[in-house]
Amino acid sequence: MLDCRVPVSIDDPKKALIWDLDVFLIFMSGIGIGIISRHFILSIALFSFLAWRWGKLKSGKHQWYFLHILYWYLPIQEKNKRIPDTHQREFLK
To answer: How far apart are the first and last CA of the chain?
Structure first.
């Protein structure tokens, strides 16, 4: 029989090799920027540090924690009728 990996739960985050997908994308963007700018070693070092710090920041928090932070602290220009403004506390007047 063929052995296959069974996820522990459905909510497991997506992985790329051994890293979470967002940390991997930060690292890979550093490789791309390094190739384009011809500063490969410098960008690998910088983006490795940024990916490591991002992983440390998000450890122990909910998978979508930073999306919630962006919602609360960045201004939202588009008016979405399904989601009220963040400053609105009373909905029925």
So the answer is: 64
53 falls within a domain: yes
Give the Cα separation of 48 and 58 in Å (integer). Answer: 16
Q: Global pTM?
A: 0.60
Q: Which domain holds residue 41?
A: 15-73
pLDDT digit string (tens) for 16-40?
A: 777 888 888 889 999 999 999 999 9
| DSSP label at residue 16 | E
User: Where does the pLDDT of residue 3 fall: very low under 50, low under 70, confident under 90, or very high at 90 and above?
Assistant: confident
Any domain includes 25: yes
Answer yes or no: is 3 within a domain: no
